[in-house]
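Researcher: Structure for this, please.
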Amino acid sequence: MLLRLALRMSDTSDASQSSLVALVGSRICHDLVSPVGAILNGVELLEMSGKGDTPEIALIRESVENANAKIRFFRIAFGAASADQKIASSEASNVLSTIEKSGRLSYRWQSETDLSRQDVRLVFLLLLCFEAALPFGGSIFVAQRDGNWRIEADAPKLKYDTELWSTLVAPKGATDLPASQIQFALLPGLIRQSGRRLHLEQTETQIRALL
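Model: Predicted structure, token format:
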């Protein structure tokens, strides 16, 4: 229900509606961070006591670290971000490097030390779009220079939905998208609000986005 509400809100030009969606995202992620962190602390205590050297505890640690990274990723992608808010490049890179340990995608992140959180939010939403096109695995490269972003994805096989991707550069209004594709509904409005323009290029094995 919340996802359908977000889709309807993101299609409006009213920035306050988009802000409300972002606050919902921030609230959900904020409430999930504490219990996931508590589990990770418990695992660390077991390891310190000498009782955590087992395959089961190692699996729990790996799963909790991935869940924590996912929450951090979603908090940036879907959460609130003010115009003057900054985020360290190392933080964004760390989130992606943790996520890639348990997935089929590899990430390379190249950018300045201090970044606009609003810019990183746009990039992370774009990364979700890229992930949807790379279900069989691949590599994604993100580079920022002079305030401009370049995101490139390479894979032996892409699953590129031309109609869906076209909505990023030519929004067509609200659509009944599944939850896994909500980024395609949210991103166009946020790009307009940022004053940026998105350019896309696609081949049989590569997708490139300039922002």
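Researcher: Any notable elements?
Model: The longest strand covers residues 138-145. The longest helix spans residues 15-48.
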